[in-house]
Every structure is written in structure tokens, then in C-alpha cells.
Write a structure and sequence with these properties.
673 residues; alpha/beta; six-stranded parallel sheet; 20 helices; globular; EC 2.4.1.11; alpha-1,4-glucan glucosyltransferase (UDP-glucose donor) activity; glycosyltransferase; transferase
Length: 673
């Protein structure tokens, strides 16, 4: 199965500037999804983060339609009066007639309706069946049948063209939902997916080739200085370290300053999300660190919600013991400080033998005695309802990662989403990600992958795969992803054992990096956030909407795509200096300091090359061309002999699927220095 993208939608500069102004004054956009103000999964994040960019483009002509839930209305919706008479009449009509139709406005605007996923697709099918004058778009973020097939442990990607889709859907009792999804894909004027790999999947399972790929973006918050997000990393890491101190009380025989925090997070789909591969790689990493006598320790977090009945008592006790030790230390410190102060007031140096009395020593001995325990620190922070059959816990028992003193890799399974109000680990997800060193997401089925994208925006390196939309997107836009902290695991052309070995190599190489190298790599990772900003990726949605208008209203709109030249496109070049991988780089001095501050204008290396963070960042950012947004303007009426608006842009109307797989050095354009 080929995994190539079409050139015309492969990279951000591949979308040429709009040559004609596009009037949206009499055009209305409705975006319909089950996750509008209703947080269920990743589509909620897509709509929430994209709303500002879309609102800037469409103004008051942009409407989101979703299910009415009391919780959603109370927490996420601001109730307002309808801004236009047409909308007021529409809502009044819907209320009085049971949502049977939409009211018409006098001006008869051109309506674009964008439907997300099969749950909203029935509205699209009815629009076409009733021949309503609406330009329709359907986006599938993951095919229904694809998710079910991958959960069944089949060789999915090598057998896409061989599946009997009707039979497979029927056997899984989802045939009615599958038919709705397939009908919506075929009825839409424009059909889109979030990644190239999902486009190929949709072509085989839904039997329609997507017209355009619309990658998912985020609202990127840029810092005025590079060291700001590095400081946030240090602050968040300190919060995680406090939890680790309590969780491993009595067995805290490793150096927290030489401890790395890895994590995986998401829906509890053990194989689809790659938790099985991650655990196997951790077992091999543990062996490598032990036999090589490494002083580095790895704490791996699994943040995946599962069925539990409460916190683990031993885990809660650990945090209580930590707090008791902290209170004891503060009490002794206050008494010590008071005696020191009184001694200095009378002009004499304190007698150190009298600074602490027997009561102080007794208090400290009691606190130390409370930290003693015979059992290993718990692997799971909660009491699992299905402890004996839980996939993660069963695998941990098999590979023997029990958090013993001899293990250099420790595992913590937190089967609940993170919250700043938790009595156990009181941090929200964003703060937790910022405090970790590496996100590991070796997914087998991941149509896009918001978790590694969020890591990138926060400057945290991550591991993704060439079977995820995010991994393919970054591999296409970056000449050497690992140099920028984006490790792409090959799960398409390697077997499971080889993929585990490759992931182990990534993790072990990361453990060998010095603190200086990790800081440099985080700087590079954070610079990639421009690629994931909606102000760039939102242009693909603009193309889809203009394409739909041209197909639904050809007398008013035109869309004339053409193929991009072979030299178009852009790939981040490999950084010119200070490679982060220990196997490819050397320390700038014989004794690398672990206490170095952020390297901005670092010393020259052994080849005489000086590292300049600002200069390197400027080189990369020069290669991202800011998009020119369509501006509102009046247009000549179609009755006067000219079109309402004309768009001449780069994306082709279909996704190409060449016969050869994407090579590491693709023909997407020469690397720029």
C-alpha cells in the first residue's frame, strides 16, 4: 500500500496565494458535529482550537451546530440573542415545528455545511436527498470500520484492498453505522480526511478517494523569549518530582537529578495506541541500562483511563508520608532558625551541638521509620476492577517491571485523566506534559495524533510512527525529524519485534543525551510549532470550502486547481550544528557539565563551529511563508458576465496514490539552508 501524499497538498508553501479576492458577505458556514461543546474525543479539540481562525475568516456568518447538553451549555456556551433576523426566524421555526426545516432569508445566501464524522453525516445525506441548495463537506477523522478492524489484531494496512467491507461491518454489528458513514462520504460535494494514511484507508473502506487532506492544527502560543518555555518545563518537572518522592518512599535509591520522565497518554486501546510496544521496549531499555551500569533512571507514566473503584491505599500513603517528612523538616528548620537568630542577636556564633535537642532527633527518627516498607512501590495508582485481566498489568507481570531497586526503569500506571484537583498527582495534563522529557506514542492506528502534536507545541520531544497522520506529516516536512525531537518509528515496513528494537534504540539514545543536548533539542522541537498552527493549516479547510462552493454553485464560483511544480514544497533542513544524538555528536569539552544553563551562544565544538540558537531559529523560520488570507470585497454580479469569485490555487481535487512508498529523501523539494 503506497503512503505517498499528493504534491499539491503536501507542504504549506504548496498552497499558493489567493489571486482573487473572495467575497463571503452573502455566504454562510455551518459546521456540524457531535462534539460541538461536547467533549468526547479529538474532534472536540479540532473544533475548539479552529474556531478562532474560522471566526476571523467568516465573522458573524459562522455557526457551530451540535447536541444540546445541560453540562455543555453551562460550562462552554454563552447564551445570546440571534444576531440576524433570518437566524431568529430559523430558530423560532425549529422550536415550533420540531426542527423539521430551516427558514429562508430574503437574500438567499450561499450556504456551506461542513459535517464531521458519521454521527452528523445523516444531515448531509438528507440535504442532498431533498436537493437543498447547500454546498456540503464531509470529514472523517477515522473510519468506523478501520478502528474496529485494528482493534481485532488484524494485519490492517497490508490487507486494505482485500477486506469485504460489508461482511466485516456486519460481523461487528456496525453495518448500519458503516452505511451512514459511507453514504455521507459519497453524497458530499467535497470529502476530506485528516491525514494521507487515513485518505488511503477511506479510499478502500468507504470507496471514495478524498478530495483534499485537512491536517489538524492547534492554537500556538509563542513566547517572547526562548528560555520562558524552558522555565515552565523546570517548574512542571518539580511538581512531578514531588509525586515521585512520595510514590517511591522507602525505595528512593536513585538520583532524581538523573531521572527522565517518559509518558504515553490517550484512550485505553492497548494495541492501537502502542502500549504493548512501549512496554516491551521499556523492558529492553531496563536491561540495557542495567548491563551498561548507567546512572540514568527512567520513570514511565501510562495515563490511560480504565475502570477503577478508588485510589490505591499504598499510593495515597506514599503522598502522606512525603508530606509528613516535609512538615517534620519544616518544624526542625524553624526551631534551628530561631536558635540561630537568637545566637546572632547576642553577637556570638551558635554552638552546633546545642542547635538540635533530643526531641528534634526523636521527631526525625520517627519520620525516617515511617518511610520504611517491605513491598515494592505500586505499579498502579488505583484499584483496578479487572486487575487480573488488565492488558497493561498483565504485560508488566510478564516482563517483570515491578519497580524494584535493581530496575533502572520504573513504571507508573495512572488509569485516570489528570486533574489539578487530584489528591494524588495535582497537575493538569498540559502541566504534566511540560514537565516530562519525552512523549512516546508508538500507535498502530492513529489517523492524526493530537498527543505528539501537543508535545511539539510545548517543546517536548516525542516518538510517533509512520502509521500515524502526525508522524507522516512531520516526516514529510522535516529532513531529519529526530534532530528536531520527532522520532518516527517504522511500524509499516517492520515486524513487531523489529519495531520494538527500533523504539528501544530511540529510548536508549535519548537516555545518553546530556542535559545540554536535551535543552538544545527542546528548543528545536518548539520551533516546529509553527507547522502545526491553525493560521497555516486552516488554509486546507479554506480550500475545501471553496471547492465545495464551486461544485454546488458553479454559476457563481469557480475553482481551478493545477498541479504544483516538483520544486515546490518545503522540508525543514537538518540543523547545521550541535546534533542532539550522542552517536552523531561529541561534547564541546572533555567534561560536559550537567549544570549548564540554556545554550544560546554556546562554545565552539571540536570542529570550531559555534552554536547560535537565535541564528538557527531564524534560518528555519525564513522557510515558512506566511499565508495571505482571502479578504472580503465586493464582486461583480454573475449577470454582468463575470464570475462571483475565482480561486486559482494549488491543491488538486484528489489524493494521488503512487505505486512506490515514500522514501526518506522524497521529491518534495530540495532542502534549503
Amino acid at each position: 500500500m503506497p503512503l505517498n501524499r499528493t504534491l499539491s497538498v503536501s507542504s504549506l508553501p504548496g498552497l499558493e496565494d489567493w489571486e482573487d479576492e473572495f467575497d463571503l458577505e452573502n455566504t454562510v458556514l455551518f459546521e456540524v458535529a457531535w462534539e460541538v461543546a461536547n467533549k468526547v474525543g479529538g474532534i472536540y479539540t479540532v473544533l475548539q482550537t479552529k474556531a478562532k481562525v474560522t471566526g476571523d475568516e467568516w465573522g458573524d456568518n459562522y455557526y457551530l451546530v451540535g447536541p444540546y447538553t445541560e453540562q455543555g451549555v453551562r460550562t462552554q456556551v454563552e447564551l445570546l440573542e440571534p444576531p440576524t433576523p433570518a437566524l431568529k426566524r430559523t430558530l423560532d421555526s425549529m422550536n415550533s415545528k420540531g426542527c423539521k426545516f430551516l427558514a429562508q432569508s430574503e437574500e438567499k445566501p450561499h450556504v456551506v455545511a461542513h459535517f464531521h464524522e458519521w454521527l452528523a453525516g445523516i444531515g448531509l445525506c438528507l440535504c442532498r436527498a431533498r436537493r437543498l441548495p447547500v454546498a456540503t463537506i464531509f470529514t472523517t477523522h477515522a473510519t468506523l470500520l478501520g478502528r474496529y478492524l485494528c482493534a481485532g489484531a488484524v494485519d490492517f494496512y497490508n490487507n486494505l484492498e482485500n477486506f469485504n467491507v460489508d461482511k466485516e461491518a456486519g460481523e461487528r454489528q456496525i453495518y448500519h453505522r458503516y452505511c451512514m458513514e459511507r453514504a455521507a462520504a459519497h453524497c458530499a460535494h467535497v470529502f476530506t480526511t485528516v491525514s494521507q494514511i487515513t485518505a488511503i484507508e477511506a479510499q478502500h473502506l468507504l470507496k471514495r478517494k478524498p478530495d483534499i487532506v485537512t491536517p489538524n492544527g492547534l492554537n500556538v502560543k509563542k513566547f517572547s523569549a526562548m528560555h520562558e518555555f524552558q522555565n515552565l518545563h523546570a517548574q512542571s518537572k518539580a511538581r512531578i518530582q514531588e509525586f515521585v518522592r512520595g510514590h517511591f518512599y522507602g525505595h528512593l535509591d536513585f538520583n532524581l537529578d538523573k531521572t527522565l520522565y517518559f509518558f504515553i497518554a490517550g484512550r485505553y486501546e492497548f494495541s492501537n495506541k502502542g502500549a504493548d510496544v512501549f512496554l516491551e521496549a521499556l523492558a529492553r531499555l531496563n536491561y540495557l541500562l542495567r548491563v551498561n551500569g548507567s546512572e540514568q533512571t527512567v520513570v514511565a507514566f501510562f495515563i490511560m483511563p480504565a475502570r477503577t473503584n478508588n485510589f490505591n491505599v499504598e499510593t495515597l500513603k506514599g503522598q502522606a508520608v512525603r508530606k509528613q517528612l516535609w512538615d517534620t523538616a519544616n518544624t526542625v528548620k524553624e526551631k534551628f532558625g530561631r536558635k540561630l537568630y537568637e545566637s546572632l542577636l547576642v553577637g556570638s556564633l551558635p554552638d552546633m551541638n546545642k542547635m538540635l535537642d533530643k526531641e528534634d532527633f526523636t521527631m526525625m527518627k520517627r519520620a525516617i521509620f515511617a518511610t520504611q516498607r517491605q513491598s515494592f512501590p505500586p505499579v498502579c495508582t488505583h484499584n483496578m476492577l479487572d486487575d487480573s485481566s488488565d492488558p497493561i498489568l498483565t504485560t508488566i507481570r510478564r516482563i517483570g517491571l515491578f519497580n524494584s531497586s535493581a530496575d533502572r526503569v520504573k513504571v507508573i500506571f495512572h488509569p485516570e485523566f489528570l486533574s489539578s484537583t487530584s489528591p494524588l498527582l495535582p497537575v493538569d495534563y498540559e502541566e504534566f506534559v511540560r514537565g516530562c522529557h519525552l512523549g512516546v506514542f508508538p500507535s498502530y492506528y492513529e489517523p492524526w495524533g493530537y498527543t505528539p502534536a501537543e508535545c511539539t507545541v510545548m517543546g517536548i520531544p516525542s516518538v510517533s510512527t509512520n502509521l500515524s497522520g502526525f508522524g507522516c506529516f512531520m516526516e514529510e516536512h522535516i529532513a531529519d525529524p529526530s534532530a528536531y525531537g520527532i522520532y518516527i518509528l517504522d511500524r509499516r515496513f517492520r515486524g513487531l519485534d523489529d519495531s520494538c528494537s527500533q523504539l528501544t534504540s530511540f529510548l536508549y539514545s535519548f537516555c545518553q543525551q546530556s542535559r545540554r543536548q536535551r535543552i538544545i533539542q527542546r528548543n528545536r522541537t518548539e520551533r516546529l510549532s509553527d507547522l502545526l498552527d491553525w493560521k497555516y493549516l486552516g488554509r486546507y479547510y479554506m480550500c475545501a470550502r471553496h471547492m465545495a462552493l464551486a461544485k454546488a454553485f458553479p454559476e457563481h464560483f469557480t475553482y481551478e486547481p493545477h498541479e504544483a511544480e516538483a520544486t515546490q514544497g518545503y522540508r525543514y533542513p537538518r540543523p547545521a550544528s550541535v546534533p542532539p544524538s550522542p552517536s552523531l555528536s561529541r561534547h564541546s569539552s572533555p567534561h560536559q557539565s550537567e549544570d549548564e544553563e540554556e545554550p544560546r551562544d554556546g562554545p565552539p565544538d571540536e570542529d570550531g563551529e559555534r552554536y547560535d540558537e537565535d541564528e538557527e531559529a531564524a534560518k528555519d523560520r525564513r522557510n515558512i511563508r506566511a499565508p495571505e488570507w482571502p479578504r472580503r470585497a465586493s464582486c461583480t454580479s454573475s449577470t454582468g458576465g463575470s464570475k462571483r469569485g475565482s480561486v486559482d490555487t494549488a491543491p488538486s481535487s484528489s489524493v494521488s496514490t503512487p505505486s512506490e512508498p515514500l522514501s526518506p529523501a522524497s521529491s518534495l523539494g530540495e532542502e534549503r539552508n
